[in-house]
Amino acid sequence: MRPFTYTGTTNRNEALKAFTTTSHYLSGGTNLVDLMKEHVEQPDQLIYVKNLQYNGISKNKDGSYTIGAMRSNADTANHKDIRLYYPLLSMAMLSAATAQIRNMATNGGNLLQRTRCPYFFETSMPCNKREPESGCGALNGVNDQHAIFGYSDNCIATHPSDMCVALAAIGATVEVQKVDGGSRKIDLEDFHRLPGDKPEKDSNLEPGELITHIHLAKPELSNHYAYVKIRERSSYAFALVSVAAGFQIEDEKISKIGLAMGGVAHKPWKLIEAEEFLLGKKPIESNFGKAAELAMKDAKPFEGNRYKVPMGKNAIVRALMQANNIGE
Amino acid sequence: MKTKNATGVGNAIDRVEGHLKVTGEATYASEFKVENKAYGQGINSTIAKGEIIGIDTSEAEKLKGVLKIITYKNAEKLKTFDKERPVLATDSIAPVLQSNKVHYYGEYVGFVVAETFEQAQYAASLVKLKYKEDATARFILGQNKDKAYNPSEESDHKRGNLKKGFSEADAIIEQTYNTPIEHQHPMELHATISSWNNGKVLVYASQQIVEDAVISISGTFQIPKKDVRVVAKYVGGGFGSKLNVERHLIMAVMASKMVGRPVQATVTRSQMFTNTGLRQSNIQVVKLGAKKTGELTGLLHETLAYTSTTQEFQEPCGSMSKMMYNVANAAVSERLVPLNLQQPFSMRAPGEATGSFALECAMDELAWKLKIDPVQFRIKNDTQEDLSQEKPFSSRLLVECLTIGADEFGWNKRQQKPRANKKGNWLIGYGVSAAARAAPFNETHAKVLLNLTNDTVTATLQMDATDIGTGSYTILAQTVSDCFNVPLEQVVVELGDSDFPITPGSGGSWGAASYCNGAKSACDNAIAGLKKNRNVPKDEDVSIAELLKMNQITSYESQSLAKPDSEFEKHSIFSFGANFTEVWVDKDTAMYKIKRMVNVGSAGKILNPKTAYGQVIGGLTMGAGMVIAEQTKVEPNFGNFITRSFADYHVPVNLDMANVDVIFLPEEDKIANQMGIKGIGELGITSVAASIANAIFNATGKRMRDLPITPEKLLMAEVEDGVTV
After folding, report:
1. Among B635, B645, B652, whose Cβ lies nearest the Cβ of A142?
2. What is the C-alpha separation between B219 and B80, in angstroms, rounded?
3. Given CB atoms, is B711 within the 8 Å cutoff of chain A?
4. CA A84, chain centre distance (Å)
C-alpha cells in the first residue's frame, strides 16, 4: 500500500477543511481499503469521517425517515423503524456482503461503492474507469458480470450495491455538505451516473463533497415488497441480477409502485416503463410477465452476459410475485 | 486393533493440539520468534510471455527500509532444469529469477527485501519492469487441442477389445465434460522464515512433506542435505499446494544469504492465485456402452489437460475409470497441452476429483438411457478385482456403501423421471455417485523416547510427519497411547522437523496409514527390545513402566520403520464410498441448494471418528465447491487470472450446504497395513460433484457437463432430449 497521512476528526468543518484533491474520506473502509491494497486507489490523505455525528435514524414530519451517512449498514437494516417502514431496504441491505462487512460498512460509503469489474481491480489491465484513456478490457474480454443497459464503449461496468437498488425503488434524496460549508440535495436517480465518456466518475458528487444524510421517500411500499438477488452462492457474492420491487394495492389494483434492478448497469436501474405499465393493473402473473418484457426490451447484452436478459425477466416476475404473495 | 483404553485408536477424542490452535499457541511458519528478521515480497510479471528488457529500481530503492531488490540480474545462480519441461514432483528443484524470460502472467520476476512487510510490499509495487511481449502466448486449452502430446506411454491403459465392446452394447453414451482451473487456498498463506548460520540454513515453512522440502532446497542451492533443516510444526491446510517447495521460499532462502539476515516471506492471498499451485482445467471425453441388462461392455476415457511451458504435471483423470467397474474392454488416456499459464500441481484428489465427475456423470447418463436405477447400475458392474492391475482388491465394500447409503438416504423415494418432484418454485432432484481413492502406504520411520519418573512413563514420539489440520498429532498420540497402554497425558508427539525420522509427509491420503504404522513399529520395537533384554516372553503382558524398571533404566530410545509388505504388493488397495445428494433448484432463478447429503465410506480402520468426520465433511464441501462456483477464470487476451480474491473466487458458504451425514462402515483392512488403516483425506471430495450434477439432472432434466454449475449456466442450458417439461 502507498503511504498516506491520516486525519481523524469529529468535526465536520475540520474534515471539509482538510480535504484536498488527492484526499479520500474514509468511513467503513470496506471497499476503499481493499482498493488501496490493490493500488487502485492511492490517496495522499485519508480523512476519517465515521466519527462525525451523522449516524442517526430519524422520523420526519411527513412520516418519511432520514438515515445518517455514517450509520453502519447492519445497524440501519436492523433498526426497528427501518424494518417496519422500509422492509425492502432492510431486506436488500441484509442480502449484501457478509455480517462482518455490513457491521463495518456505512450508508454513505455504500452509495460510493466502486465496481467489481476485474479490469478495474487489476492495475496492469486497461480500464478507463481506473485510468482514463487506457481502454476497456471487458469490452472484448471477460464480460459475464457486466452491464446490459446504459453502457458506453468506454465502460461496461456495473454498480455493485444492493442498498442502492432498494433506494432507487423506494425513492431517496442524498444530502451532501459542500466544501464551502453549504449543503445540497441530490435526487438518488441523479446521484449515480452512466459512464458516457467519463467512466472515471461514478457519481455526480463534486470533489470534497461529503455525504451526510439519505432522506427516504415516504414509506408507501412497505406492504408488498421483495428483493430478489440472484448470485453464485447464497452469501457473500455480488448480484448477477437483482430486483427490488415494492407496491401498494388499492381496489385490487396496483396504486403505487417502485421497481429497480441491480447488476445490469453503471447505476441502479429504474424500471420506469414497467412501473408505468403496472400502475392501475391487477397484480397478477400475466401482468408481471408483460412488465418484465417491457423492462428488458432494450437490453443489449455482450457475449458473456446474454443470460442476464432471461434471468432479469425471471427475477422481475419473481420479485413481483413474491411481493404480491407476501404474508401468505 | 482392540482399543485398550478410552482415548486410544478408534475413539472420538478431541484434538490433543486443539487447545494450542484455538489459543494461538500453535506456531505456524511465519510465527516463529526470529530475531532481526527482514521481510521479502515477490514481484509478479504483468505479461504472460516474453522477456524483461528493462528494470528500473530507482524509485523503490529510495524508499526507507528497503534492503535489497533481487532480479535475474543479481540473483544467486541456482540449479536449473537440465531438460525441457521436466516432470514436477514433490521434491523437484524450484529455480527462480534465473533469466529474463517470462512464461506466464504472475511469474516471479523480482523479490524486494525490506525492514517491514509494508515497506517490502510498497517497494515491490514501485519496481518498474519493461517487457518485450511475445504474442505467441497461449491460454485456452480448448483452442489448442492440436498441441497435445502424450506425456507418458505408461499412463495409457488399454484392455480387451474396445471396438468389440461397443459393438456389443445396446446403448452407448459419449459426452465431453469440462472442469475449470481451481486453486487450493488453504487458510494459512504460504509462508517461510529462512536464516543462514555457518553455511547451514534453517527454514521455517508451511510444507506438507518436510523431507522433500529438504531435498528440493538442497537441490536448488546445490548444498548438502545435512546443511538444510526444515521445520513445519503446524500447517494451516495444504490441499496439495504445499506438497512441493514454491518459489517464495527459494527467494527467501536466497535473500537471507544476500542480506545476511533472516528473511520472512508470506505470500499474499492474490499470490495464492498465481504462485502456489492449482488444479488445471481438463476436457474429458467419456464413452460408455452397456447391454440392456446393465452390464458394461466398453469404457473410453480420454483426458486433455494443460501443463505449463516450463514443467510437466499430469493429473491422472482416468485413474478411477481404470479400476472402478467390471468392464472387460477399456481404454484410458491422458494428453497434455503446454500453455502460458501458472504451473499446475496436485490439488486434493488430483485426478479422482475431476475424473470421477466425468465417469460418474456418464454412468448416470447411461443408466437414464437404459432406464436402470443408477444405484443398481453401479452394483451390477461391481468387481472384486482391479482389472487394470489384474490384482484382487484388498477389500472393497462399494456395494455395501451404495445399499446402506440408499437406505439411509431414502433413495426409494426418488422419481426416475426428471422434473417429476416439485414443490412451489422448487424442482427437487436426487443424485448418486460412487467413489474410489487409492489408499497408499509408504515407508515411514519413527523414534520413540521413553522416560520413567516416579513410576510414570512419558512416551515422546518424534517423526518428520506434518499435521496439515487433519489431526496427525491426535491420531499419533492415540496410537502411542494404545501401544504402551498409557493415558494420552503421558504421550508427547513432536512432528514437522527434518531432524526427526523420515516419513512420506501428509498428502495423497497416505499420511494417517503411514504415520500410525510407523509410530506403532517404533513403539513395538521399544517393547520388544526391553523384553528381549530381560528375556521376557514376547506375548507376556508387562506394563511399560515395569519393563523399564526390570531393565533398571529410566529412559529408553527406539527407532523403527514400517513399510508395505508382499501382500500389499499383491493387492489393489483403495478406499470406497458412495454419495447421495438432494438438491432443490429454483425453476426461475436457477439458484439451487444442496438440501442434504449422505456419504458412506469404507476406509479401513477409523482412527478417530471426530477428526475423520471433519476430513470427510471438508472433502464433501470442497467437492460441492467444484459444482457451486469454484473456478479461476482466465482472461482470454492477457492470460491473467481475473479471480484474485475470495470475493471473486467463490467457495461454498454455510447457506449453500445443509445436512450432511457421514457414515463409516466398520472395516479393518489388514492387507493394506498392519493397523488396517486406509486414507480418507481425498475420499470425501471424490465423486461429490457428480452426485450433485446428477441430482440437478434429476431435478431439472438438464445435463450440466461444465463445472461449475452456476445459475447463469443452468438457466441457459436446454433440457435433455426425451425429458418432458
Report:
1. B635
2. 10
3. yes
4. 21
Average pLDDT over residues B209-234: 98
For residue B522 the three cell numbers come to 517404533
Number of CB pairs, chain A paired with chain B, less than 8 A apart:
99
Confirm if B133 and B121 have CB atoms less than 8 A apart.
no
CB contact under 8 A, B715 and A1: no
In chain A, which residues have their Cβ closer than 8 Å to the Cβ of B708? 232
Cβ pair A164, A192 in contact under 8 A = yes
Q: Where in chain A is the domain with CATH 3.30.390.50?
A: 224-324
**Do the first three CATH levels of B347-440+570-716 and B442-563 match, i.e. the same topology?**
yes
d(CA A55, CA B46): 43
pLDDT of residue B155: 79
Classify A327 in phi/psi space as left (phi over 0), alpha (psi -120 to 50) or beta.
left
Residue labelled with grid coordinates 448480484: A239
| Cα three-residue angle A317-A320-A324, rounded to 5 degrees | 135
Q: Give how far Cα B493 sits from Cα of B22, B107, B459, B559, Å.
A: 18, 39, 8, 14
Q: Which CATH number fits domain A5-50: 3.30.450, 3.10.20, 3.40.91, 3.30.43?
A: 3.30.43
* CATH annotation of B347-440+570-716: 3.30.365.10
Those residues whose C-beta lies under 8 Å from the C-beta of residue A115, and which sit 6 or more positions away, are A129, A157, A158, A159, A160, A202, A266
Query: How far from chain centre, in Å, is Cα A136?
Result: 22
May I ask the CATH architecture of the domain B442-563? 2-Layer Sandwich (3.30)
DSSP assignment of A91-120: HHHHTSS-HHHHHH-BHHHHHTPPP--HHH
At A128, phi and psi to the nearest 5? Answer: -65, -25
Q: What top-level class would CATH report for the domain B36-135+187-237+242-273?
A: alpha beta
Cis peptide before B708 (omega within 30 of 0): yes
CATH class, range A224-324 = alpha beta
Residues of B labelled catalytic: 682
- Residue B411 corresponds to which cell in the numbers above? 433413495
Q: In chain B, what residues touch A40 (CB-CB under 8 Å)? A: none
Mind telling me how many Å the CA of B707 is from chain A's nearest CA?
A: 13
Tens digits of per-residue pLDDT, A282-311? 999 999 999 999 999 999 999 999 999 999
Q: Are B438 and B350 in contact (CB under 8 A)?
A: no
Hey, is the C-beta of B624 within 8 angstroms of any chain A C-beta? no
pLDDT digits (tens, 9 = 90+) for B664-702: 999 999 999 999 999 999 999 999 999 999 999 999 999
**C-alpha–C-alpha distance, residues A218 and A256, integer Å:** 12
- Positions of CATH 3.30.43 in chain A: 5-50
- How far, in Å, CA of B281 to CA of B279, rounded? 7
Nearest Cα neighbor of B323 from B573, B556, B568, B586 is: B573
Record: contact A141-B628, CB cut-off 8 A? no
Q: Which single residue is written with the C-alpha cell 456482503? A: A97
What single DSSP character describes residue B439?
A: -
Structural contact between residues B510 and B471, judged by C-beta atoms closer than 8 angstroms? no
Q: Are residues B189 and B269 in contact, defined by beta-carbon separation less than 8 angstroms?
A: yes
- Among B679, B502, B654, smallest CA distance to B593 is for B654
Q: Cβ(B631)–Cβ(B280) under 8 Å?
A: no
Any bridge partners for residue A241, and if so which?
Answer: A230
| Residue B643 amino acid letter | T
Report residue B675 as a C-alpha cell: 493397523
Domain ranges of chain B: 36-135+187-237+242-273, 347-440+570-716, 442-563
Of B588, B650, B716, the CB nearest to A233: B650
Condensed to tens digits (0 to 9), the pLDDT of residues A79-117 reads: 999 999 999 999 999 999 999 999 999 999 999 999 999
User: Cα–Cα distance between B106 and B246 in angstroms, integer?
Assistant: 14
